[in-house]
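User: Could you write out the 3D structure of this protein bound to flavin-adenine dinucleotide? I've included everything you need below.
Assistant: Certainly. Input first, then the structure.
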Amino acid sequence: MQTPNSDGAERNVVVIGGGFAGTTLARRLERLLPAPWRVVLISQESYTTFNPMLAEVVGASVFPEHVIAPIRQMISRTRFIMARVTGIDRQRRLVAAETLAGVREIRYEHLVLAFGSRANLSIVTGMAEYALPLKLIGDAMFIRNRVLQRVARIELESDPMVRRRLGHFVVVGGGFSGVEVAGELADFLAGARRYYPRVAADELAVTILQDGRRLLPELPECLGRSAARSMGRRGICIRLGARASQVDADGVMLADGERIDAATVICTIGSRANPVVERLGLATERGRIVTGADMAVEGADGLWAIGDCALVPNAAGGQPSPPTAQFAVAQAMQLADNLARAASGRPTRPFRHVSRGMMATTGHMKGVAQVFGVRLWGLPAWLLWRAYYLMRMPTFGRKLRIWIEWSWSMFFSADITHLRFTRSSEADEAMSPGAAPSIATDPAPVPPRVPAGLRMAAPVAAGNTH
Ligand SMILES: Cc1cc2nc3c(=O)[nH]c(=O)nc-3n(C[C@H](O)[C@H](O)[C@H](O)COP(=O)(O)OP(=O)(O)OC[C@H]3O[C@@H](n4cnc5c(N)ncnc54)[C@H](O)[C@@H]3O)c2cc1C
C-alpha cells in the first residue's frame, strides 16, 4: 500500500480520523486540491459518529444506526482505508496502520491528525471500574441495555433499599452531554415504566452531579437556569456544587463526605489524549497537540492537527478553540484552504471562527439555545436542535429515516427491547450443564447477591416475574 511520489505521480494528503474534523476536511479537499494530489482518509471505524446525538440512543429516541453515517457515503474521490493508526515515522513520512489485511505503511506529503480524544475515567477514584462513559456508539447502547436491565431487576427485588438503589441513575457532569443524557434518561424511564407494573414511579430517579454553581456553564446563566428549572419540574434532581470523589458498585461519594446510593453511574466528564499522541513526542497541553495559528504543528514539517486532539488558537478572540463539533468543522474548512494554499506555494491563513452559538436538549421536547446572539428555550430550542442535526446528516435517505423515527417517537412509547448480542455458539455454551447463568450478567453487582444455584429459589417481589 506504499504510495510512491518520487516519480512525480500521486502526492498524498493523509488524514487520520473519520470524525467531524476528518470527514469535513476530506470532502472539502476533494474540491480544492488539484491533481496529482490525492486525499487518503484513515479511520478505525467505517463510520462517523454524531456524538451530540448519543444521548438520544440512550433514551431510544433514535436507533443506533441513525446517529452514525458511513464514511464511504460522505466522500467521493477520497481513498478511504479502515484501519487503526499505530505509529508515524516523521523522518520517512510514513503512517503505519493496522488494516483488515495486516499492518500497512502509507506515504504522505502532508499528514493531518484528526483522531479526537478519549474518555478519561481516571479523574475520579473507581470511575474506570464502576461508571459508564458516554463517548462511543457502543457506550450509548451499553447504557441503554444497562438501564433496561436495572428496571427489570427491580421487579425481582423485595428489599426497598435495594430497589431504590437499582432505580437511581446518577449522571456525573452538568455540561452539554450530562444534561442531554439525563433528560433523555428521565423521558425513557417515564415511558418504559408502564411495561414494568411492579416498579413504582418513585422508585426511579435521575440525578445530575455538577461540580459548579450552575448547569451548562458554556451558555448564558439564564439558559443554564432555564434548563435546571425545566428538568427539575420533571423530577430530575440537580445537585450543584457536588463533586464526585469516589465511585463504587453501590453509588457515589461526594467530596464533602456525602454518600449517594445508585447502582448506575454515567460519566460525561473528562477526556484524555489519544495514545498515538504520546508516541509522537509532540508538544501537548492538557493532552491536546499544540498548533500554530494556521493549524500546522510547530517544528514538524508537513504535520497539521485539528479537532478535539488539537489545541488550535482562534484569531477571533485569541483564546484556544473549545473541543466542540462546531469548531472541529470550522477548523477543517480552514485547513482545507490552507493545504490548497501550501500545495500551490501561497501563504497559509490563521484559523478564525466566531461561534454561531450552542444548544442542548433537556428532554421532554425542550431545550435551550443561543444562536447568533438570540436566546431560545423550550420547544423552539428543541426543534432548532433537531433541525440542525438533521441538516448535518449525509444523504437524503438517512435524513428521511431519522425524521420518520423522530416523528414516530413523539407519538409512540420508546422501544424497550433489551438487545443481546449473543451468538448461537455462546447461547449453546450458556445452556450446557454446569454453565453459569448468563441472563443476570452484571459487572457492577448490587447486593444482596444470591448464589447462582439458588437464583430461581430466591424471594421475588410481589407476584410473579415476567
Ligand atoms: C456525548 C457527547 C455529546 C457531545 N455533544 C456536543 C454538542 O452538542 N455540540 C458540539 O459542538 N459538540 C459536542 N460534542 C463534542 C464533539 O462530538 C467533538 O468535539 C467532535 O466529535 C470532535 O470531532 P473530531 O473529528 O476531532 O473527533 P471525533 O469526532 O472524536 O473523531 C475522531 C475519529 O478518529 C478515529 N480514530 C481515533 N484514533 C484513531 C487511530 N489510532 N487510527 C485511526 N482512527 C482513529 C475515531 O474512530 C473517530 O472516527 C459531544 C461529544 C460527546 C462525546
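Confidence is low (pLDDT under 50) at residues 1-6, 443-466.
User: Perfect, thank you.
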